[in-house]
């Protein structure tokens, strides 16, 4: 990332490590250069090395010399950095055909199950908000985005945020794990089908982006090895798995099924911060019952997933007051267009949480720390009534009354408490 850019309109060099950007006489300069790219001239900011030498490393690697300004948190400090904009990509005929076929397939699946579907749905301001807007019976709106051409991570965030502001839940579908939509918004990945296969009745399985909750106590006898030490740790784990990796395995989710289930609220998007690093977030579609169970254990995620937009001022920014560096830093550390590296895929992003004991609130029948409040005579009478030995009599975990608690046929709670629990 570069710490400065060249302003082509004013013909000045901008130092992003200085509070005044190196130009105290231009108080509105920060707001101008951090304005989102869709609201300013694309060629307003230029790479310093490209401006000086006519070429830079980014351009040699297929990037444009034009820059955008981002916030970046490094070592606990948030700073301004300059990043190269991608070369504008014109979808190929194949990408356009696949995009159109997927939009039509989503709409057909929705309408086949009685939901309303609008292709290229527009908001009241006339701007396109989503490729296909699917509306469920209860008014839930899912905004499907069929993404087959490259896209920037910033565009994914901005369009997802715009959809949310209009009461639409975004759902991006892609056919590559290198896409910038992966883990940056509610997403689903399918196989790389041709447009003819997408348009056909061929089943399209969601390969990633849909997960199910699995919970277990980590013991030597557990079927799963400990995700922390590879053996067993004696603690409790809760983790999200792909259907095929669940125990027992669950049926895979198909795209047509997800179209309906998301509109019905049977599948919902989840945002799960890493237990060790809350800044690292996994995103996935999950069954609503699994979402509710997770919230019971850990509570809902109260943090808004809305990174600071360019143009939001310099609140929280640290200015390091360094000398302006005119060297192009592309390739050393960069934001993504479509990621050059494979995404985390199926082995990570599972939202693993580990805890020492089951929270009290999750116990259907609360713990009873008291002993049986009964005399020896009452214990013998209870044993006679239950047809067991006196030592097998113990307190019901729900109401505390004497029951056949111990032995091979003992139960944890009386019949009335078990029936009350089953009705919950």
Number of strands: 17
Q: How many helical stretches?
A: 10
Helix/strand class:
alpha+beta
Shape: elongated
Topology at a glance:
Elements: E1 4-7, E2 12-15, H1 29-33, E3 45-46, H2 48-53, H3 57-60, E4 63-74, E5 77-86, H4 93-112, E6 116-122, E7 128-135, E8 141-146, H5 153-165, E9 169-174, E10 187-189, H6 195-199, E11 212-217, E12 236-241, H7 255-264, E13 267-273, E14 281-287, H8 288-298, E15 353-355, H9 376-386, E16 393-395, E17 402-404, H10 415-422
Parallel strand pairs: 8-9, 9-10
Antiparallel strand pairs: 1-2, 1-3, 4-5, 6-7, 7-8, 11-12, 12-15, 13-14, 16-17
Descriptive account of the structure:
- The chain has 424 residues and is α+β, with helices and mostly antiparallel strands.
- It has three domains: 4-86, no CATH class; 90-300 and 337-353, no CATH class; 363-422, no CATH class.
- It has ten helices and 17 strands.
- The protein has a five-stranded mixed beta sheet with strand order 6-7-8-9-10, sandwiched between helices. The chain has a three-stranded antiparallel beta sheet with strand order 2-1-3.
- The chain is elongated.
- The two termini are 55 Å apart.
- Mean pLDDT is 83; it is low at 303-311 and 333-348.
């Amino acid at each position: 990332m570069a710490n400065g850019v060249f302003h082509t309109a004013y013909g000045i060099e901008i130092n992003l490590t200085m509070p005044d950007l190196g130009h105290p006489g231009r108080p509105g300069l920060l707001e101008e250069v951090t304005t989102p790219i869709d609201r300013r001239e694309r060629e307003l900011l230029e790479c310093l090395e490209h401006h000086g030498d006519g070429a830079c490393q980014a351009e040699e690697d297929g990037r444009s010399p034009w820059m955008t300004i981002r916030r970046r948190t490094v070592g606990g400090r948030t700073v301004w950095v300059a990043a190269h904009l991608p070369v504008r990509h014109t979808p190929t005929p194949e990408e356009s055909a696949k995009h159109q076929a997927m939009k039509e397939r989503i709409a057909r699946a929705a309408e086949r199950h009685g939901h309303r579907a609008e292709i290229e749905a527009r908001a009241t301001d006339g701007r396109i908000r989503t490729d296909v807007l699917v509306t469920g019976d209860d008014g839930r709106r899912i905004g499907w985005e069929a993404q087959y051409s490259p896209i920037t991570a910033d565009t994914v965030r901005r369009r997802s945020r715009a959809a949310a502001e209009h009461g639409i839940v975004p759902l991006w579908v892609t056919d590559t794990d290198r896409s910038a939509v992966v883990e940056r918004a509610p997403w689903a990945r399918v196989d790389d089908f041709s447009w003819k296969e997408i348009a056909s009745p061929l089943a399209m399985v969601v390969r990633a982006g849909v997960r199910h909750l699995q919970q277990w106590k980590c013991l030597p006898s557990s079927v799963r090895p400990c995700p922390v030490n590879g053996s067993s740790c004696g603690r409790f784990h809760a983790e999200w798995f792909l259907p095929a990796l669940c125990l027992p395995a669950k049926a895979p989710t198909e795209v047509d099924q997800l179209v309906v289930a998301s509109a019905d609220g049977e599948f919902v998007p989840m945002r799960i911060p890493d237990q060790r690093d809350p800044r690292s977030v996994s995103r996935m579609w999950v069954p609503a019952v699994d979402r509710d169970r997770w919230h019971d254990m850990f509570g809902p995620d109260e943090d808004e997933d809305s990174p600071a937009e360019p143009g939001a001022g310099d609140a929280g920014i640290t200015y390091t007051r360094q000398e302006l560096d005119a060297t192009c830093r592309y390739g050393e550390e960069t934001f993504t267009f479509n990621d050059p590296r494979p995404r985390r895929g199926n082995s990570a992003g599972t939202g693993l949480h580990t805890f020492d004991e089951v929270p009290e609130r999750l116990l259907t029948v609360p713990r009873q720390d008291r002993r049986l409040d009964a005399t020896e005579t009452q214990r013998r009478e209870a044993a006679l009534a239950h047809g067991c030995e006196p030592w097998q009599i113990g307190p019901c975990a729900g109401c505390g009354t004497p029951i056949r608690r111990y032995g091979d046929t003992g139960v944890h709670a009386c019949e009335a408490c078990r029936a009350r629990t089953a009705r919950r």
